[in-house]
Amino acid sequence: MTPLLKVAVVGAGISGLTTARALKIEGHQVVVYEKSDQLGGTWVYNPRVESDPLGLDPNRDIVHSSLYHSLRTNLPRQLMGFVDYPFAIRENGDSGNFPCHEEVLEFLNEFAREFGLVELIRFKTEVVQVELRNDQWIVGSRTNEMTSDEVFDAVVVCVGHHTQPRLDEFSVFMLQKLQGMENWPGKQIHSHNYRVPEPFQDQIVVVIGDGPSAKDISLEISKVTKQVHLSSRSPDIKICKLDCGDNMWQHSKIDHVDGNGEVTFQDGASVRADIILHCTGFNYTFPFLKTEGIVGVDDNRVGPLYKHIFPPQLAPNLSFVGIPYQSGVLFLMIDLQAKWIALVLSGKAPLPSKEEMMADVQEYYRCMDDKGLPKHYTHCLRNEVSQFPKL
Ligand SMILES: Cc1cc2nc3c(=O)[nH]c(=O)nc-3n(C[C@H](O)[C@H](O)[C@H](O)COP(=O)(O)OP(=O)(O)OC[C@H]3O[C@@H](n4cnc5c(N)ncnc54)[C@H](O)[C@@H]3O)c2cc1C
Ligand SMILES: *[C@@H]1O[C@H](CO)[C@@H](O)[C@H](O)[C@H]1NC(C)=O
Ligand SMILES: *[C@@H]1O[C@H](CO)[C@@H](O)[C@H](O)[C@H]1NC(C)=O
Questions:
Q1: How many domains does one find in the chain?
Q2: For residue range 249-264, what is the model confidence (pLDDT) as tens digits?
Q3: Of 136, 139, 153, which is best to mutate to test ligand 2, by the most ligand atoms within 8 angstroms of its C-beta?
Q4: CB 294 within 8 A of CB 313
C-alpha cells in the first residue's frame, strides 16, 4: 500500500482550497501556505492599488487581487460551484444570476469551514523557496521576518496568475523609450490597478485589450468619462462608434503616441488622451520555484506540463492547479484537477511514464506550431489545438 504523503499546498484561493480538500479526503497530511491574512485569493477585494500603476517596479509592494469594486461573475451561479458543492443562493443573499464578488468570497469561506480546511492554512506565511533536495521537497517560508524550512513529499502550486501585469508588445516597445512613450504626458494604468470609475471623471481614455476586463471596464468608465477609445489587436477591426454608449469608439492597434498627448491608431484616427488603460492580461510567475530549469516560464508558457498540471520529470510530486484559462467552467476544472492530483498521489490513478508524458507535451506544442499559435496561448483552452484534440 502506498504510504500517506505529507503535501504542501502553496496558496489558499480556489485552487489551494479544492486541492486541500481533495488531498485530505485521500488521507494525505496537508499544510496550506497563504501569504495573505485570509483565504479566497483573487476574490478578496482590496481597495488599495500598487505604487507603480503599470506594475513594472520590482520593488513595489504587491497587491494580490485584480478585482474591481463593481465586479460580478461572468458565469451564472449554477456554474460557479464545485463538482459536489453547488453555489447556492444564501438566505439573505442576492438572488441575481451573476453573483457579486463578496458572495463568491463568502461561498469560499463556507466551503473551507465545512470541510475543515481553515485549520490546515498557515496564514501570513509566504513561500519563498520550493526546491528538490535528495528526493525530498524543501519548502522555505517567511512569516513576518522569520524564515523556516520544512520537508514534504509533494508540493502543489496554487498561486494564481492574475497579479503580475503583462503589457502588449507595442507598450513594451514604447516603454523601452523607442517611440516617445517617455514624452507622453498622460497617465498609464494596468487593469490590475483599476478599482472604481471616479478617477476617470471627464477624462479621455484609451483602453488597450480585447478581453473581458477591457469590455467590462470600458463600459463602466464610459458613464463618467468624456470619451473611451477601445484599441483592439485583432486585425480586422474597423474604426466605429460603439452603440453601447454615445462616447465609445472601437479602433485598431495604436500606431504611435507623442509629446502633446496625442495617441494615433493604425486606422489613422488620433485622439488627445489623458489616460491609457492597459487591459492586456497577466504574466505567470513562480519566483519561489527552484527546479534548475526543469520547469519554467517562457513567454507565458509554463512548462513542460503534462495536461497543464504535471512537469513530467518531477511528477507526480510537483504539480500545478489553475494554470489554464478560458477553460469554460473554471471552478469545475480546478476541482477536477485537484481531485486528479490527490488520486495520483495516493497511487490510485497512476500517470503514464515520463517519456509518454513528455511526448504528449511535445505533440501539443507541435500542433500549436502547425496552427501558428504563439507560445503565450499554451494555456488558453479556447485555442484550436486544445478544443479539438487529435482523436
Ligand atoms: C478581474 C478578474 C475577474 C475574474 N472573474 C471570474 C469569474 O467571473 N468567474 C471565474 O470563474 N473566474 C474569474 N476570474 C478568474 C479567477 O482568477 C479565478 O476565479 C480564481 O480566483 C483562481 O483561483 P486560484 O486559487 O487559482 O488563484 P488566486 O485566487 O489568485 O489565489 C492564489 C492564492 O495564492 C496566494 N499566494 C500567491 N503566492 C504565494 C506564495 N508565494 N506563498 C503563499 N501564498 C501565495 C495568494 O495570496 C492567493 O491567496 C477572474 C479573475 C480576475 C482577475
Ligand atoms: C514522490 O514522493 C514519494 C514520497 O516521498 C517517493 O516515494 C517517490 O519516489 C517520489 N516520486 C518521484 C517520481 O520522485
Ligand atoms: C511578461 O512576460 C514577457 C514574456 O516573457 C516579458 O517580455 C515581459 O517583460 C514580462 N513583463 C511585462 C510587464 O510584460
A1: 2
A2: 999 988 888 888 899 9
A3: 153
A4: yes
